[in-house]
Amino acid sequence: MKKIFLILFCFISINLNAQLKDTVFIKRTISDSPYPFYHAIFIDSSPDSEHRKKLIDFKFNSFDSASYYEIINLLLPLNKIQNIKAGFPVKWITLNQYKGEYYLYRPSEAGYHFKFELTDSATIDYTMEGPIPGKIKRIKFDDDINCTIEREHPWESREVSIKIIDKQKGIAVFTFTGQKSDRWYHLMVDSKKANLFPVIVNYCITDKQGELDFDSIDFNKLLK
């Protein structure tokens, strides 16, 4: 029985690799003990990558809808914002740095993939707990690369500053500020320009795996 499952895993891995043109493996494990097991971390450079399509998908599933509307009802009434700058990106996904290069990342645990969306009345943080809305109280565009959002949010984050550092590639630094003025940062990319970057995929169909360690980013340097 183990041999049958191992053959099946190998077949899956071969098919998976065949779908990817320029696959570079960072890690790969095939084992039949204590049970058939296949795990691979690889770079998918395909321009039509299905993994990339998953990462830029902002559609809600049933769990997302329940989570979102439970919170949004606590924030009503929402105020429609009139001054959102035309052409400013509104859907963002996480960008990572690995060995000095930029990559998208499809994690072993999907909830680790952070996304951010800006609507005409709310922000949405896509997290492990699902999409978390925040009520926009004020939004300011200093120019076409700098945006500051003040919001009412169920978590600590009360302000989001977006600074586009590479307009051509759609790369931005997001600065989140909490109630106690503590700050944390995310490197993000406009979802419409995600096709400019390869995807690192952490693939295993049987078990959740540890996530890949990416480069530490000097956000203060990027913001300068």
Q: What would you note in describing this structure?
A:
This protein has 4 helices and 13 strands. With 224 residues, it is of the alpha+beta class. The strands form 2 sheets. Strands 3-6-7-8-9-10-11-12 form an 8-stranded antiparallel barrel. A hairpin with a 3-residue loop joins strand 6 and strand 7. The radius of gyration is 20 Å and the shape is globular. The N terminus is likely disordered.
Q: Kindly state the mean pLDDT as a whole number?
A: 89
Shape: globular
Strand content: 35-45%
**Distance between the ends:** 59 Å
**Unreliable stretches:** 1-20
Please give the count of helices: 4
Percent of residues in helical segments? 10-25%
Instruction: Report the sheet with the most strands, covering strand number, pairing sense and barrel closure.
Output: 8 strands, antiparallel, barrel
- Side by side, the strands of the main sheet go 3-6-7-8-9-10-11-12
| Strand and helix order | HEEHHEEEEEEEEEEEH
Q: What is the strand tally?
A: 13
Structural class designation:
alpha+beta
- Radius of gyration based on Cα positions: 20 Å
